[in-house]
Amino acid sequence: MAEVSLQNISKSFGESKAVRNLTLTIRDGEFVVLLGPTGAGKTTTLRLIAGLEKPDTGRVTIGGQDMAGAAPAGRDVAFVFQQYSLYPHLTVYENLAFPLRSPARRLSADEIDRRVREVARMVRIDHKLENRSTRLSGGEMQRVAIGRALVRKPSIYLMDEPLSSLDAKLRGELRLELKRIQSELGSTLLYVTHDQIEAMTMADRIGILNDGELIQLGTPREIYSNPVNLHVAARLGQPHINLIPEGLVPGGQPPSGTKTIGARTEHLEIHAGNGTANAEIDWIEHLGDQSHLHLRIAGHKLVTLANPYVPVKPGDKIKLTLKDPLYFGSDGQRLV
Amino acid sequence: MTNPSPGLAGGDRQRVALGRAIVRRPKCFLMDEPLGTLDAEFHEVMVHELRELHNRIHATTVYVTHDQHEAMAMADKIAVMNHGIIEQFGTPQEIYNRPASMYVADFIGSPPMNFLKFTSGLQKGMRSVSVEGVEIALPEVHQDMAVSELALGVRPEHIRFNDSSILRGSVYGAEYLGTNQIVAVETGKGLLKARVPADRTFRIGETVGLELNSEKLSLFDCTSGRAVKSSLYTEARHG
User: Fold this and answer.
1) Domain containing A143: what range?
2) pLDDT digits 0-9 by tens, B90-107
3) How big is the CA angle at A329 (ends A328 and A333), to the nearest 5 degrees?
4) Which chain B residues contact residue A176 at CB under 8 A?
5) Number of domains chain A is built from
6) Residues of chain B falling short of pLDDT 70
7) Which residue of B has its CA nearest to A290?
């Protein structure tokens, strides 16, 4: 495993700038997730590290070595794509063993067998080693694809939304497994996704990408609690952060220049109305473990989480106040 | 308004499709996973829009989905189907709090209900069961049962960490979600997932004590998969 560093990387395709002056270091053994919508430059970043694209400007280093002249095969990276690409004529075992059989590796048959079985156990596909890869479910195929990257011990794993084609339950299980495998192996891993839950739950650090630019880099807690601007604040949190004009809800101490207030559940306090009500419960989403209260205040709609046993119903008048919310200026930057 | 439809983003296209269904003012809307293709962020927006639309026009709607979150977020009532059979029909709260079967308990909720399997007989009036030598209080049992495979069902948010509890395990992983976090704990009875506030951080391998919220526990017969009758379930019928 190795440290991977991008310095002032830019890449354009014709008129469109896919990556703009990106500087990012993924430390040895670190799990970094790049989060952004489609077209933010996530996949291009991975392809630049893998050597599948050449940067217009800037430098990629892996383990301190400049990769400028290095072909993809010489970079010692393992790539997991969004769409699993297995060899359909081979068994699960053979698919996993394939990367180890490269003549350049010179591993003994015993060593290959040991690694294949170890990784198959990790990704929980060891009961289907003799199955043809075409006889697997989507989730199983993707586990084989991830396993095929894991049998090698490259400098860095590059993963491009590897869980996005799986159903919700399996995705939840694999998130936990992937994070655990990565920390057990001490792997350096760069993972890109548009799913905030994946980013929050797996990353040591999250990089928020927008329009080819790295907007903020930090631990999930930093990004969630201390977003640098409105764009970042809106990327994390469920329900979505409430962005409301200054002055709408009482409480808090907005610094001068505050235009917008960002209020998550933990920034909103609900009290019984008792004649001082300023808001109304519009409707309630009962999600079981918790409820989403949809509130209406002076024509604005807000959503906040509540304990499912909170005794409120649609039409109830309540008093809503702010507690240490986030403040943003007219340019969208955070004010502290 | 005057855009040809291929020029629209995915969400807008789905809005057009919904609008086309609404202008007809039909007696009933039938919707087949209309939000299945949207990405996560936009998905939440559309779930809210659809429910708010329903709050305004009150049209009878039958909506099918494999996404339990959509069902919980939008439905007045949910029918949970399994191999062509309705396993349970009720409000989202009923289904979540009093699942009629292990299938329902596992399908609804994210993460799903945890099961602790054990073998025991049951008598009416029992207020606790013994799982791996740990006595766990639960809602009063209303049914007799010969010794059989049972499963204690506990929702992630009904597990609390308490160092003095005898039920112990080691932390397998923690998933930070902002307001709260999901902590997976390896126990003698398998992996249990707890939903707890995000303010405490956990180390992998750390030993923790687990306390279950007795009033909210379900009990299942593993052979039939059905819930065992208890005061938790009968309250439901009367109230």
Assistant:
1) 4-229
2) 999 999 999 999 999 999
3) 65
4) 172-173, 175, 184
5) 2
6) 1-11, 235-239
7) B157
How far off is chain B from A33, nearest CA to CA, in Å? 14
Give per-residue pLDDT as tens, A210-250. 999 999 999 999 999 999 999 999 999 988 999 999 999 99
* A28 SS3 class: coil
Residue A166 and residue A312 share a domain = no
What pLDDT does residue B3 have? Answer: 65
Q: Which residues pair with B148 in a beta bridge?
A: B120
d(CA A100, CA B165): 48
The answer to whether A175 touches A163, Cβ cutoff 8 Å, is yes
Write the ipTM: 0.81
Chain B nearest CA to A201, separation (Å): 4
Contacts of residue B33 in chain A, CB cutoff 8 Å?
Answer: none
A236: in domain: no
Could you say which of 3.30.70.270, 2.40.50.140, 3.40.50.300, 2.40.37.10 is the CATH number of the domain covering B111-239?
2.40.50.140
Whether A243 and chain B come into contact, CB under 8 Å, resolves to no
DSSP state for residue A175 in the 8-state scheme = H
Q: Which residues of chain A have pLDDT under 70?
A: none
Q: Which of A219, A214, A216 is nearest to A202 (CA)?
A: A219
Q: A288, B156: Cβ pair inside 8 Å?
A: no
Q: For position B239, what pLDDT does the model report?
A: 42
